[in-house]
Design goal:
Number of domains: 1
Structural class: alpha+beta
Helix content: 25-40%
Number of helices: 5
Strand content: 15-25%
Order of helices and strands: HHEEHEEHEEEH
Strand order of the largest sheet: 5-2-4-3-7
Length: about 180
């Protein structure tokens, strides 16, 4: 996985580009780099919000078997996977097609929250009070911090791929019916 956990100047500019007035966001961060900020979704990025453990499994799949990820944060016990704008609109129908959350195939898999146009998310601070990696009391931090003005962001198909693989790992989904332990063969 990417080793950068500090937001660079270019990464902060990309995050601020989600705002109607990006210079205001940058000025706030310049004054208080240790403060989290609420940013709108739907233009620069969408966010797929997952419970921390399942989200981490998705992230592991993205880095171990897939294309990697864009920026990723942990905020209040949930993993925030930054995705391409439009993902929040398309992903729920793809998950429905995969029968996400229905008993049997993916029962017990947590729901994924999709934040897109009209939504906002709180992102962790850029830096801690001493200029180091943020260490918020609530555990909020960047796992993969934004480092460029144009980060690669996974689309709905890549997020679906990671979610299905994480679910298979979690549930050990098989195409074969379970063995009848009481069968006399």
């Amino acid at each position: 996985m990417s080793s950068t956990r500090k937001v660079t100047t270019d990464g902060a500019a990309w995050l601020a580009s989600a705002e109607t007035y990006p210079r205001s966001a940058l000025a706030l961060w310049e004054e208080r780099p240790d403060a989290p900020l609420v940013l709108p979704c739907g233009t620069a990025f969408d966010v797929v919000n997952a419970p921390a453990i399942f989200g981490r499994r998705m992230l592991d799949r993205l880095w171990a078997e897939g294309p990697g990820s864009g920026p990723v944060a942990v905020f209040r016990g949930r993993l925030l996977l930054f995705a391409a704008a439009g993902t929040a609109q398309r992903l729920p129908s793809l998950l429905s097609w995969e029968e996400w959350g229905r008993r049997g195939r993916t029962g017990g898999v947590p729901p994924l929250l999709c934040h897109g146009t009209g939504d906002a998310v709180t992102v962790p601070a850029l830096r801690g009070p001493d200029g180091e990696e943020p260490a918020a009391r609530d555990g909020s931090r960047w796992l993969v911090a934004p480092s460029t003005r144009h980060p690669w962001l996974p689309g709905p198909d890549v997020v679906l791929w990671a979610a299905v693989r994480a679910a298979r790992e979690t549930l050990r989904i098989s195409i074969f019916p379970p063995v009848d332990q009481g069968a006399k063969v």
